[in-house]
């Protein structure tokens, strides 16, 4: 009997040594991951985020874990990451740089735990730039007859909303107009003047009505990097950071007493528009 008990005890010891779990001396540790910094940024297409994406990895007691492997992937919106795998530093922090795509984006970071642990991931979101023009609050205001009598001056005031700072960009306004008797629009371009306090973009234009009763205007705004503008002109091949919606029409009636300019039947109805 003593011999049999001795054999059983030896078998249990061998089994415990093999499984390394009888006394729970070597438990499986499942680390946690959390967003540390860089979430909810504004992403400019083709540009790196202002701040890197950072996560913090901790053990079950909340202590930082160094040398933990973190995997990164873009799951929405496109773009590229500086790397797909990083290791945490002594503070348990790992980071990656994200070059934004073209749409609202999402990046997922996953801590590479033991196989028996539930996958532990966090997501970073970023929003695309937005620029919207509103007909409400926009206006075309008659000012005066130009001193040389060539045309009538108007101030154009365009109301906008945006989640970016327009002062950092060159504001290019595309105007389209169509007189009462016309069936197609004519386009021109102007540099917009920003009034950030009132969320408006303005410019001055000068034109004549001739015998027309009114003119309709539509507007679209494109933002360019200032480095894409030389001598007041957008360089060939430059791509706008963002283009707004097309807003309009805003109808401007011929003002009472507006002068009539004799441009001739074959001459242009609009004099120096866009200047």
From TrEMBL:
<feature type="domain" description="Big-1">
    <location>
        <begin position="50"/>
        <end position="122"/>
    </location>
</feature>
<dbReference type="InterPro" id="IPR008964">
    <property type="entry name" value="Invasin/intimin_cell_adhesion"/>
</dbReference>
<protein>
    <recommendedName>
        <fullName>Big-1 domain-containing protein</fullName>
    </recommendedName>
</protein>
<dbReference type="Pfam" id="PF02369">
    <property type="entry name" value="Big_1"/>
</dbReference>
<dbReference type="InterPro" id="IPR003344">
    <property type="entry name" value="Big_1_dom"/>
</dbReference>
<feature type="region of interest" description="Disordered">
    <location>
        <begin position="253"/>
        <end position="275"/>
    </location>
</feature>
């Amino acid at each position: 009997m003593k011999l049999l008990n001795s054999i059983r005890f030896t078998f249990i010891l061998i089994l415990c040594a093999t499984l390394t779990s009888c006394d729970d001396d070597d438990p499986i540790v499942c680390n946690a991951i959390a967003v540390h910094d860089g979430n909810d940024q504004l992403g400019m297409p083709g540009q790196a985020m202002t701040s890197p994406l950072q996560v913090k990895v901790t053990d079950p007691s909340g202590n930082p874990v160094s040398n933990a492997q973190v995997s990164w992937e873009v799951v929405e919106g496109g773009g590229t990451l500086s790397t797909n795998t990083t290791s945490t530093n002594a503070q348990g922090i790992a980071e990656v740089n994200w070059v934004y795509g073209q749409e609202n984006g999402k990046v997922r970071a996953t801590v590479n735990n033991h196989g028996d642990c539930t996958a532990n991931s966090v997501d970073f979101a970023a929003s695309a730039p937005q620029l919207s023009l509103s007909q409400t609050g926009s206006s075309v205001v008659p000012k005066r007859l130009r001193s040389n009598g060539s045309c009538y001056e108007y101030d154009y005031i365009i109301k906008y909303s945006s989640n970016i700072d327009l002062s950092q960009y060159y504001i290019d306004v595309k105007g389209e107009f169509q007189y009462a008797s016309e069936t197609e629009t004519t386009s021109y371009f102007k540099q917009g003047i920003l009034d950030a306090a009132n969320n408006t973009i303005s410019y001055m234009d000068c034109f004549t009505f001739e015998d027309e009763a009114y003119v309709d205007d539509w507007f679209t705004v494109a933002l360019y990097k200032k480095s894409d503008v030389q001598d007041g002109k957008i360089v060939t091949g430059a791509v706008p950071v963002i283009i707004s919606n097309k807003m309009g029409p805003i109808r401007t009636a011929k003002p009472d007493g507006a002068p009539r300019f004799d441009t001739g039947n074959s001459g242009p109805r609009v004099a120096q528009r866009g200047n």
